[in-house]
Amino acid sequence: MSIKSIFKPSLFASLLPLGLLLTSTHSFANKNYIPEGYELKTVMTPKDVPFHITGLDSAENGDIYVVTRLGEVWRYDQKWHKFADGLHEPTGLMVDDDGSILVAQKPELTRLVDTNKDGWADEYIQIVDDWDFHDNYHEFTFGPVKDKAGNLYGTLNLSHGAPNSFSLGTMGSAGGWRGWAFEVTKAGEFKPFAYGLRSPAGIGISPEDELFFTDNQGDWVPTSKMHLLQKDKFYAHPVSLIDHPDWDEQKIRNAKPEDFAKFSEKPVVWIPHIEVANSPGNPEWDTSGGKFGPFEGQIFIGDQTQSNVFRVILDKVKGEYQGAVINFVGGMQSGNIRTHIDNKGQLWVGQTARGWGAKGGKPFGLQKIVWNGKQPFEVLDVKLVEDGFKLTFTQALKASSVKPSSFAAKHWHYDYNGNYGSPKRGVTQLPIKTAKLSDDGKTVHLKMSLTADKVVQIDFNGVKNKAGSQASTRTLYYTLNQLNN
Length: 485
What we know:
Shape: globular
Number of domains: 2
CATH class of the largest domain: Mainly Beta
Number of helices: 2
Mean pLDDT: 93
Largest sheet: 8 strands, antiparallel
Number of strands: 34
CATH architecture of the largest domain: 6 Propeller
Low-confidence stretches: 1-30
CATH topology of the largest domain: Neuraminidase
Structural class: mainly beta
Distance between the termini: 55 Å
Strand content: 35-45%
């Protein structure tokens, strides 16, 4: 194993988490919620093993593979089998098409192969190690995911307090592609792919072969967010520019936030801090064909701090993605960092609270969310229209509950600068002009005046289905990058 590093052990290496640096006084949301028709099941993990799951995937036969932050890979087929160990704080795992296991360690991307089929990895094959690793606790490597052409992708965390690092705030880089996404071609060639990432703890690939990633709130990231990840694009954190051929330290320091903002990509969704997430993990698409309920094609993301899972509902406006986030399941046992839907339509959630805790009180664990076949009553879809929004529900609504007073809306924006996070700015109430129910009783057309580059919060506390029930969560947050007119 080749490790490019500066061997100066960090005092924080075993103490601090993925994503944000938070204190023990940090506040958490307090609600527990789950849609009707869904069950939360806890999977027992190996006894006396610190089972901090940081990577999760399933094999074609349904076996679940996990990697722990302490460097072990385990396979689950109703009982646990250790598959590999000795890895360097891995934070990502993928089962490849040939059954081998790809693991993202801090210093390299590694392929694990069981050559003699005895259930134990015999070969640890280095795929790439072209980034620099400075033995810094925050230099995580996330991924990989694979596109249909066979190329792999991952993301590299910025450092915190690394020796000789360049910084414009909390996070820094001592060079070597920190804060970049990378591609590994089918031929095994490493290529820097995109830049401006801070703490990109989750990378995913859609059924349409499009890459997305989440980033954690902090300096230059006003609140957590999810982006479409595209080649040679900039994603807001300027420290990574230190590795860009068109920039140097002096040029970066001379630039102002508005200079960086001009070429920074807008998030597909902003994820409101604490209300939805603090440290989101990987985006996972529901491609179960209805085995997981009515949310086919939507994205599910876990949060390490809030111990919840939330949905992302995409909306394509003028050819560009934007959309809404809404909480899905809360009150889980530990910090949710990895999500995966298997071929049975079960949503597995890998968990760790190592370092600074999570709302769920357990230090680690594994749970799964299972649909029992009963139709839940929830918001199914959100679409921007010229004069407001159309909200579609999974069940027909009680007509008398569909009126402007059953809804409330407001909008705001965030600051973009080197400060650690941003409060909501310019919070303004948005009057609901009309609320019109569709003929099928499932879609409500809300008319309201809208402004681009805002996050729009819509509450629907007064809305009920025909049985008089309310949805399990009744607030959504739509990122309005551009208007539909």
